[in-house]
Design a protein that fits this description.
single chain
Length: 86
C-alpha cells in the first residue's frame, strides 16, 4: 500500500514537471495540450499492449475525444470526493 502510494506520487510529480517544462519550451502550447498528447499516446500504448488485432476498439477522433472527456470527468469526480473526505 504505502510503496504503491509513493510510486504514484513520484509519477505525478514527474508528470507535473514534464508538463510544465513542455509548456514553457514549446511556444503556443499549454498544459491541456500536453495532457491531450499524453492521453492520446497512452491510448495507443493501451491498444498496442492489449493487442488491437484480437480486440476491436474504435479509435476515430470522436471516440478518442469522448474517452478523453470521460477520463477527465473521472479524475475531477475522484478529486472532488477526495476533497470531501479531507
Amino acid at each position: 500500500g504505502l510503496g504503491v502510494a509513493r510510486q504514484r506520487k513520484a509519477i505525478v510529480k514527474g508528470l507535473q514537471a514534464s508538463v510544465s517544462e513542455f509548456s514553457e519550451d514549446v511556444v503556443g502550447t499549454n498544459p491541456k495540450d500536453v495532457m491531450d498528447i499524453l492521453l492520446l499516446s497512452q491510448y495507443f500504448d493501451t491498444l498496442s499492449t492489449v493487442g488491437a488485432n484480437s480486440l476491436i476498439l474504435e479509435h476515430d477522433p470522436s471516440t478518442v475525444a469522448n474517452l478523453q472527456r470521460q477520463v477527465g470527468e473521472s479524475f475531477m469526480t475522484s478529486s472532488k470526493a477526495k476533497d470531501l473526505l479531507s
